[in-house]
Amino acid sequence: MTALSYSQVMGANERVMVGYIGLGNRGDQVHEGFLEYGDARTAAICDLKTSYMDLAEKKAKAKGHDTPKRYADYRKLIEDKTLDAVVIATPDHWHALQMIEACNAGKDVYCEKPLSLTVVEGRKMVEAAERNKRVVQVGIQRRSAKFLQEAAEYARSGALGKITLAQGWHLTNEWPVGLGAAPEGPPPNEAEWDAWLGPAPKVPYNRNRMYYNFRWFYNYSGGQMTNFGVHYVDMLRWCLGKDSPKAVTVMGGKFAIDDNREIPDTLQAMWDYDGVMMVFTQINANSAPGNTQKTEMMIRGTKGTMYLNLNGWEVVPEAITELPLPQRNPVDRVTERAYNPSRKPVIEGRKLTGQVTNHPHARNFLDCMKTRAKCNCDILTGHLSTSATLIANAAFKTKSYLEWDAKAEKFTNNAAANQMLSYKYRAPYKLP
Ligand SMILES: NC(=O)c1ccc[n+]([C@@H]2O[C@H](COP(=O)([O-])OP(=O)(O)OC[C@H]3O[C@@H](n4cnc5c(N)ncnc54)[C@H](O)[C@@H]3O)[C@@H](O)[C@H]2O)c1
User: Fold this and answer.
1) Is the dihedral of CA 415, 417, 418, 424 positive or negative?
2) Rounded to whole angstroms, what are the CA distances from 96 to 102, 103, 111, 384?
3) Is residue 149's pLDDT more than 50?
4) Whose C-alpha lies nearest to ligand 1, atom 25?
5) Cα-to-centroid distance, 162 and ligand 1 (Å)
6) Helix (H, G, I), strand (E, B) or coil at 167
């Protein structure tokens, strides 16, 4: 049987044969998430680093798995007819090619966030999943955390009143050294550098561009805007029940950190989500908390404020008054003084603790493979959240206020920004 027909008749207790492409920092964590469950078998592994594959093999065997097959070329892994699913945890510039090829080969796919490097890639990934009827989970794992599912439900219930602002912060102090300024020079291994670059432009080797640090360079990543931003935009728009923004603008720069990164160390993005403002604040040269509860996200409503973290969420009621704003004047201070004391909360506070972990997201993918249901972070959800962050990068790079036609997936007021929705792959790579 081919993987395609096999996955459609899979029983609840049947084993899922999984192939992993990319077993670095994140691939290792996702692998551990799958290893929690006996029905997910590590059947094949592929990475450019032998030591990462050695570790993955060791972990799988410690759980009683057979020795996984090793592939040097990811295309061979995708062609392997014994595999039901492919997990992709390579750098962002690889996601589209590998995910689309896996879908076309009849595999279900777990693909790390951000879904894509460009909006056009993301749309093609949505089409590939739909055309091939594939189950796809995007690696935005907050979606499988029960306490955050309850947060989103609570926020969407209207309990916070009219929500006016939703904000996320990525705060860390990397000053002064940052990544360090690694010199350009010949790669330790030309073939490995070429294989790692894949469809990205051929540029001189720099240690900082490659393993893990690629997220500070635009050819391979959207920077922290897409790296952390996609987690926050996704959670916030889930709470708001909104699909796509109408407009976006961004300011920022590399103001403090003296290394060879390309992305800004300080940035503020603002989206118009049709009557709600969304904000992502990235400050990488100062780590002071962004709000009183020191959380990574906050949603402000007329009746209360919701604070969200990886380990819980909290609602702090606003104090409201029905009195009109007093007109301050020197002969009547009584009306003015009566105003604030008349305020009263109109909702109750609430607090819920939990923990975002990797395994429930893996479990949800395995379950959906068997039932053919949509995953908690299905392909379209991942695409819409990723797109919002990608269009913010276009606003940053063009220094503009961009109006977004979400249906056409095009800007309506900036031709240069529209050029940033795709890029030309380096030969011989082609976006299918
Ligand atoms: N969901 C999350 O919370 C989360 C957290 C961290 C990273 N990520 C995402 O995971 C992805 C990987 O990030 P990382 O931190 O693990 O980076 P990393 O550099 O540590 O790992 C990427 C791995 O991909 C491998 N690779 C690159 N090209 C390959 C190819 N052509 N074939 C096979 N293997 C190849 C590399 O050898 C490397 O080991 C990124 O998209 C990142 O955004 C998600």
Assistant:
1) positive
2) 10, 10, 9, 15
3) yes
4) 22
5) 39
6) strand
Helix/strand/coil for 71: strand
The verdict on the CB of residue 198 being under 6 Å from ligand 1 is yes
* Residues in contact with 106: Cβ distance below 8 Å, sequence separation at least 6, in sequence order: 2, 3, 4, 7, 132, 134
- The answer to whether the 3-144+359-381 and 146-299+386-410 domains have the same CATH topology is no
The domain defined by 146-299+386-410 folds into Dihydrodipicolinate Reductase; domain 2 (3.30.360)
**Residues 205, 191: Cα–Cα separation, whole Å:** 12
Say if CB 365 and CB 110 are below 8 A apart: yes
Q: Residue 10 pLDDT > 90, yes or no?
A: no
Q: What is the pLDDT of residues 11-68, one digit of tens each?
A: 878 999 999 999 999 999 999 999 999 999 999 999 999 999 999 999 999 999 999 9
Q: What is the DSSP letter of 241?
A: T
Cβ 139 vs Cβ 123: under 8 Å: no
Mutate to test the pocket of ligand 1, among 47, 78, 213, 310 (most ligand atoms within 8 A of CB): 47
In terms of C-beta distances under 8 Å and separation of at least 24 residues, what long-range contacts does 262-267 make, across chains too?
262/216, 262/217, 262/218, 262/223, 263/215, 263/216, 263/217, 263/218, 263/221, 263/223, 263/224, 263/225, 264/223, 264/396, 265/174, 265/175, 265/178, 267/224, 267/225, 267/396
| pLDDT, tens digit, 9 for 90 and up, residues 294-317 | 999 999 999 999 999 999 999 999
Choose among 2, 14, 192, 191: nearest CA to 78: 2
Count how many Cα atoms sit within 13 Å of the Cα of residue 399 in the half-sphere of its side chain. 2
Alpha helices in 88-166, H assignment, sequence order: 92-104, 119-131, 146-156
Cβ partners under 8 Å of residue 285, min gap 6: 173, 174, 175, 255, 256, 257, 265, 266
Going 64 to 67 to 70 to 75, the CA torsion angle's sign is: negative
Give me ligand 1 centre to Cα 118, in Å: 17
pTM above 0.85, yes or no: yes
CATH of 3-144+359-381, one of 3.30.70.1230, 3.40.50.720, 3.10.580.10, 3.40.640.10: 3.40.50.720
